[in-house]
């Protein structure tokens, strides 16, 4: 196998491993009660870009300036609630219950509804720009084909070529030994 083929195989294998981690991590609980979500709108731009993956951790309380993810009122095409990620601009207490006034950084006005503390999923600790596009793309048939099947096929093909070459060399050595 040429040096270029080894490099390409190594890069493709590395991409497969990274992709597997990105796809599988959201399916399993992460130690420390963290969760991972994909940001689906531009309401937090430029702070958090559309398509970013955010790492979220539930805390006992939140303060003004924290970026939180909470159970939103929007639903996807399957009827599942889509979480919202916005910044806290005010904290209100009413009869012992805590509510958060939130606002997307790109929005002109605050969110219409106050967010009850029990609706908060957690505080955003880290965002990875555009990583969500890879996750979303990989979950489609064509994305899976492009990101997993094609590179895996290339790697398998390269290994089969190597095995065939080894078998041919072995046959030549046997023929030369007989003569």
Automatic annotation (TrEMBL):
The record's subcellular location field reads: Membrane
Instruction: Tell me the SUPFAM superfamilies matching this sequence.
Output: LexA/Signal peptidase
What biological processes does GO assign it? signal peptide processing
Parts of the chain that traverse the membrane: 7-28
The EC number(s) given in the record are 3.4.21.89
CDD domains tied to this protein: S26_SPase_I
Q: If you read the UniProt record, what top EC class would you report for this enzyme, in one word?
A: hydrolase
The record's GO molecular-function terms, alphabetically, read: serine-type endopeptidase activity; signal peptidase activity
Q: Which UniProt keywords apply?
A: Membrane, Transmembrane, Transmembrane helix
Coiled-coil positions: none
- Every copy of the Peptidase S26 domain together lies at 17-74
Which Pfam families has this protein been placed in?
Answer: Peptidase_S26
User: Which GO CC terms are listed, alphabetically?
Assistant: membrane
Highest taxon, organism lineage: Bacteria
Q: Does the keyword section mention Ion transport?
A: no
Q: What is its main location?
A: membrane
Q: What name does this protein carry?
A: Signal peptidase I
Please report the organism this UniProt entry assigns to the protein. Answer: Candidatus Nomurabacteria bacterium RIFCSPLOWO2_02_FULL_40_10
- Provide the taxonomic classification: Bacteria, Candidatus Nomuraibacteriota
